[in-house]
Amino acid sequence: MNPSLDLARFARPLLIGHRGYPAICPENTLASFEGAMQAGCDMIELDVTLTGDRKVVVIHDDTLDRTTTGKGPVRDQALEEIKALDAGSWFDARFAAERVPELSEVVRLTAGRCMLNIEIKESAFEADFPVDAIEHQVVKLVKTSGALDRVIISSFDKRILERIAAMDAPPAVAYISGHGAEKSLLKMLLAMKAFSWHPRFKVLTRDQVDMLHAAGLKVFPWTINTRAEAERVLALGVDGLICNELRVMRAD
């Protein structure tokens, strides 16, 4: 496990904002991240990929169509073109000024305020692993910005995580899956010295949580939308909840 990320100071399970606070703001925007922090989140989960000119931007989809006024693959357009797009009015007209953020903007915004769970999209994987591959860029930013003690880098693609884990003094890494944990998954997590496992909450059982905890790993399930779902998952002994609706989760 990565020793640089210390969760011991938290007496309760972490409240993790899924793409910020998407129940009240357009997802993966600075407004959404600000809203999540104001709602009292401990950590923000966000998604990153590369632009056509190889800049790291925060967006969930591989295409621009759903959450911006642009069209086509993110990977086909330069940062300057993407920055000119409206990334908020699809949600509500009052967010028309929101833009697709660079990861560096989010790291600055959250400094001293909350932790980050940076998900690298599977589609950003490059087999030839160039010097400016997304793994190199994200890790360099985390280190140079002094964010090593508040960042988890996660992915559905184990190859991305294995590359990061093999780096010198890497950030904490976490594997995301839509299926439950078996011994083979645990073996993979231990081999990459993972910090945590992020499963779809519907597949989670108490036995899985206990197995991960016995091996020294944390469990952060996704995506919880109601208080009833939260209570069911908390009863399994998880270490945090990745949620869309934050104020409901904080009702204690």
Strand content: 15-25%
Chain oligomer state:
single chain
**CATH homologous superfamily placement:** Phosphatidylinositol (PI) phosphodiesterase
Question: Which CATH C-level class is it?
Answer: Alpha Beta
The largest pleated sheet is described as: 9 strands, mixed
Structural class: alpha/beta
Beta strands, count: 9
What is CATH's topology name? Answer: TIM Barrel
What series of H and E elements makes up the topology?
EHEEHHEHEHEHEHEHEH
Number of helices: 9
Look at the structure and give the mean pLDDT.
95
The whole-angstrom Rg is 17 Å
Helix-residue proportion: 25-40%
Global geometry: globular
Uncertain runs: none
Kindly, what is the distance between the CA atoms of the first and last residues, rounded to a whole number of angstroms? 30 Å
Number of domains: 1
The name of the CATH architecture is Alpha-Beta Barrel
What does this 3D model show about the protein?
This protein has one domain: Phosphatidylinositol (PI) phosphodiesterase (TIM Barrel, Alpha-Beta Barrel). It has nine helices and nine strands. It has 252 residues and is of the alpha/beta class. The radius of gyration is 17 Å and the shape is globular. Helix 1 runs parallel beside helix 3. The mean pLDDT is 95. Strands 1, 2, 3, 4, 5, 6, 7, 8 and 9 form a nine-stranded mixed beta sheet that branches. Helix 4 links the parallel strand 4 and strand 5. The two termini are 30 Å apart.
What is the topology?
Blueprint: E1 14-18, H1 30-38, E2 43-50, E3 56-58, H2 79-83, H3 103-110, E4 115-120, H4 134-144, E5 151-155, H5 158-165, E6 172-177, H6 183-191, E7 196-199, H7 206-214, E8 218-219, H8 227-234, E9 240-243, H9 246-249
Parallel strand pairs: 1-2, 1-9, 2-4, 4-5, 5-6, 6-7, 7-8
Antiparallel strand pairs: 2-3
Helix pairs in contact: 1-3
